[in-house]
Amino acid sequence: MSYYFCIIGSKDNPLFELEFGTSKQGGDGVARFPAEARRLNPFIVHASLDIVEEAQWLSNQMYLKRVDHFASSHISCFLTPTSTKFMLLHLPHPPNTAPPTSTASQNPQVFPPFAPYTTSNPPSSLLRGSSSSSTGGTATVPNNPTSPQTEEALRLFFTEVYEAWVKAVMNPFQGINKGLGSPVFKSRVLTAGKKFL
């Protein structure tokens, strides 16, 4: 899977954004978004903010799970007590392969980054129960973004990023609605992505 993670402040201003790929199931940690999808990812995530604002009053949980989808991309959200939103767009595709873009030349009306994934189901071997890795005991994330294993891995990822975010905003020189440019915070987000996603 490819991931686009962003933190959106309480005034709907972007504070942090990062793209990364899966490190599980033989993935190399590189995001495989096509060029057009890279430009659209921030718009897709910000379009789901209205749904997040409705869902935040219906749940007393910080992790709101999967709140929206666009074609085959799914958006998950984690809401902090200060109304800062951690948004994660995840696009499933086979590990270590770039998404096919041949449909754009065949049918120019089809949006290339997402259309090929809506017609095929993930292999059944990826949908089976989770297996433990030998290093950390974390479960592998199947290529199915709606599976319980994926939801649990996302919750653990968001929880670890939230702990790193709290430490970052406790800095007296860092405001809650100011952008996070810390390389330490970025490395902690990447580490959490490698660990859980």
Itemize the secondary structure elements and their pairings:
Elements: E1 2-8, E2 14-21, H1 35-47, H2 49-55, E3 63-70, E4 73-79, E5 85-91, H3 102-106, H4 124-127, H5 148-169, H6 183-196
What does the main sheet amount to?
A: 5 strands, antiparallel
Given helix and strand content, the structural type is alpha+beta
The sequence of SSEs as H and E is EEHHEEEHHHH
Helical segment tally? 6
Strand content: 15-25%
Radius of gyration: 17 Å
In whole angstroms, the N-to-C terminal distance is 8 Å
Estimated helix fraction: 25-40%
Order of strands across the main sheet: 2-1-5-4-3
- Average pLDDT taken over every residue: 77
The tally of beta strands, per DSSP, is: 5
Low-confidence stretches: 94-139
Overall 3D form = globular
Structure notes:
The chain has 197 residues and is α+β, with helices and mostly antiparallel strands. The chain contains six helices and five strands; from the N terminus they run E-E-H-H-E-E-E-H-H-H-H. The chain has helices at residues 35-47, 49-55, 102-106, 124-127, 148-169, 183-196; strands at residues 2-8, 14-21, 63-70, 73-79, 85-91. The protein has a five-stranded antiparallel β-sheet with strand order 2-1-5-4-3, with helices on both faces. Helix 5 (148-169) packs antiparallel against helix 6.
Provide the descriptors you would attach to this structure in a database record.
single chain, about 200 residues, alpha+beta, 6 helices, 5 strands, about 20% strand, globular
